[in-house]
Amino acid sequence: DGGITQSxxxxxxxxxxxxxxxxxxxxxxxxxxxxxxxxxxxLRLIYYSQIVNDFQKGDIxxxxxxxxxxxxxxxxxVTSAQKNPTAFYLCASSIEQDxxxxxxxxxxxxxx
Amino acid sequence: xxxVEQSLFLSxxxxxxxxxxxTYTDSSSTYLYWYKxxxxxxxxxxxxxxxxxxxxQDQRLTVLxxxxxxxxxxxxxxxxxxxSAIYFCAAGLSGGYQKVTFGIGTxxxxxx
Lengths: 112, 112
Hints:
Distance between the termini of chain A: 36 Å
Largest sheet of chain A: 7 strands, mixed
Order of helices and strands of chain B: EEEEEEEEEEE
Shape of chain B: globular
Helix content of chain B: under 10%
Radius of gyration of chain B: 13 Å
Structural class of chain A: mainly beta
Radius of gyration of chain A: 13 Å
Number of strands of chain B: 11
Largest sheet of chain B: 6 strands, mixed
Helix content of chain A: under 10%
Largest interface: A-B, 25 and 23 residues
Order of helices and strands of chain A: EEEEEEEEEEE
Number of helices of chain B: 0
Oligomer: heterodimer
Number of strands of chain A: 11
Structural class of chain B: mainly beta
Number of helices of chain A: 0
């Protein structure tokens, strides 16, 4: 089945540690996105990538990094520089010229 | 930039119709979306409407767009308990990279 997978579903880390969230899609989509969801704030764009080996900062990129070495994969690293990393992280993808974004199931990150 | 606003909460009785409203600010928005998010899950695209349309119906869902007022609504007929979720309105621009702005989400509670 085609779709977007994110792993793990729940992730716990100690303060000061970097952590990488996985996002994989087999939809052959060119564009991929990372959002952060906090209660009462909706979704905010962290990074997006239109094509392999290219990515751009979104609205709240500070404290995060990404890579796009393969079309299927867009991992997000939450670094120790992110002041408030505890949140629900959503990955999405879309066909380059099409505006529908398809979302993964999300990863809930809790920093202790 | 684009701003998308929606109310936080709506409560309806099972069998009644639900109407979730949304306003956006950028008249250039080409696509307007409705996403559904169930607890602990990712976002599921319910429906979308192009800005040159006034209405779109898909089974129990009816989307109305008032482009002049930049107002979008989602009507769910015969609301069921399984419709209880958070509904996100989103506005997007076309043209290669997909820039979508999400609302804060409306939590729909269906009372049996």
